């Protein structure tokens, strides 16, 4: 058999959530799409993706205040 990695369905779920977060989709919407009963579950699971949004938040504030 070829050296092809088996893909687990859960990896698609994680990729989907990561993609949405990186595109700026609201955590509440991501939580709903994943079927999480609480947005805290989504934030706790994917919090490592949110620090990259800090620069974007600063830019929004700078643009609105200038």
Explain the overall architecture:
The structure is a single chain. It contains four helices and no strands. It has helices spanning 9-22, 27-34, 39-46, 54-65. Helix 1 packs antiparallel against helix 2 (27-34) and helix 2 (27-34) packs across helix 3 (39-46). The mean pLDDT is 88. Helix content is 64%, strand content 0%. It is mainly α and 66 residues long. The chain has one domain (9-65).
List key phrases describing it.
DNA binding; Integrase_catalytic; DNA_brk_join_enz; Integrase-like_cat_sf; mainly alpha; 66 residues; DNA recombination
List the helices and strands and how they pair.
Layout lengths: L8 H14 L4 H8 L4 H8 L7 H12 L1
Instruction: Estimate nothing, just give the exact number of structural domains.
Output: 1
**What's the number of extended β-strand segments?**
0
Report strand %: under 5%
Q: How many strands, what sense, and barrel or not for the largest sheet?
A: none
Total of helices: 4
Percent helix, as a range, is: 55-70%
Mean pLDDT, nearest integer?
A: 88
User: Which structural category fits the helices and strands?
Assistant: mainly alpha
Low-confidence stretches: none
- Backbone CA Rg: 16 Å
User: Which overall shape is indicated by the principal axes computed on the Cα atoms?
Assistant: elongated
Distance between the termini: 60 Å
Q: Which sequence of SSEs, written as H and E, runs from N to C?
A: HHHH
